[in-house]
Every structure is written in structure tokens, then in C-alpha cells.
């Protein structure tokens, strides 16, 4: 299971994310956007021994430069703000499903489109996300993206 997801992360990075400035650490991709870092994380879902199909989730996070992280992370570790990709991009699946037979190149191509769209949507709303982070009273406050 993890081997397939690791391979997907490598293909996604090599073919789509590295050329636009993302660095990879395991299944987390980070890009410096000036005042903030954006993070994309492939999170493995739960699976029982012997299962032939598995799930994973895509988390999108932001780290604002100059704001301490203490007590701020939720979802992804070490971020100020994080949401699942389906709350940011219409049409993105909440749960991604895969098996050893699933084509990693095809999955990476589809996923890259959602990741790039999420990055663009976060960039459009970054001022409002920053306000939410600075003024929120609970660490999981969700930002409602315009549709």
C-alpha cells in the first residue's frame, strides 16, 4: 500500500510539482510563496491487513512567515492552516481510492490538476486566510472558499 502511494508522490513531484517550485519531503510538498509557504500532503487512509484497495487524502496547508506555530497545527503538522483539497477545489474527491493495479501516471496527472487549482485558490484568498489564522479562537477554523 505505502509503496504505491510513495510512487505516486514521486511521479507527482517529478512530473508536475518540482517544475513549478515545490520541494518534496516524503509525501509532503512545500513551495515558498514569499510571505507564506504552501504545503500539499498525501495522507494515507486506514486499511486492514489483506485489503486490496486503499484510500488516501490530500491536505493543503499554509505556514505564514513571522507567526509562531505553537499550538496552531491541525490536520497537517506544523502548519497554521490546513484543509482537505475538496473544500478548496470543486470536483476534487474527498477520498482518493487506489490499488496496486491503478496507474500512478494517470492518477498523478489528475491529482496535479487539483493541486494546481488548490494552489491558485489559496493564493487568491491568502489575505483572508491570514486574517482567519491571526484572529481565530480555535485551531481548526475552516475557511469557506468562494464557489
Structural account:
It contains two helices and six strands; from the N terminus they run αββββββα. By secondary structure, the chain is an alpha+beta fold. Strands 1, 2, 3, 4, 5 and 6 form a six-stranded antiparallel beta sheet that branches. The model has no long low-confidence stretch (mean pLDDT 86).
Quick structural gist:
This protein is an alpha+beta fold and 147 residues long.
Which features characterize this protein?
147 residues; 33% helix; alpha+beta; six-stranded antiparallel sheet; 2 helices
List the helices and strands and how they pair.
Blueprint lengths: L1 H16 L5 E3 L2 E5 L3 E9 L8 E12 L16 E4 L11 E4 L4 H32 L12
Antiparallel strand pairs: 1-2, 2-3, 3-4, 4-5, 4-6
Helix pairs in contact: 1-2
Treating each run of at least 4 consecutive H or I residues as one helix, how many helices? 2
| Domains, number | 1
Sum up the overall morphology in one term: globular
**Structure classification:** alpha+beta
Give the biggest beta sheet. Answer: 6 strands, antiparallel
Order of helices and strands: HEEEEEEH
Please tally the β strands and state the result.
6
Low-confidence stretches: none
Amino acid at each position: 500500500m505505502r509503496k504505491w502511494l510513495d510512487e505516486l508522490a514521486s511521479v507527482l513531484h517529478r512530473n508536475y510539482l518540482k517544475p513549478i517550485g515545490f520541494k518534496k519531503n516524503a509525501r509532503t510538498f512545500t513551495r515558498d510563496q514569499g510571505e507564506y509557504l504552501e504545503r500539499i500532503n498525501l495522507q494515507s487512509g486506514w486499511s486492514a491487513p489483506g485489503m486490496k484497495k486503499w484510500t488516501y487524502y490530500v491536505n493543503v496547508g499554509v505556514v505564514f512567515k513571522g507567526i509562531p506555530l505553537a499550538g496552531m497545527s491541525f490536520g497537517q503538522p506544523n502548519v497554521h492552516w490546513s484543509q482537505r483539497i475538496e473544500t478548496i477545489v470543486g470536483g476534487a474527491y474527498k477520498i482518493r481510492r487506489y490499488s496496486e493495479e491503478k496507474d500512478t501516471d494517470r492518477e498523478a496527472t489528475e491529482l496535479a490538476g487539483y493541486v494546481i487549482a488548490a494552489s491558485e485558490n489559496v493564493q487568491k484568498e491568502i489575505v483572508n486566510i491570514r486574517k482567519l489564522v491571526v484572529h481565530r479562537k480555535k485551531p481548526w477554523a475552516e475557511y469557506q472558499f468562494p464557489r
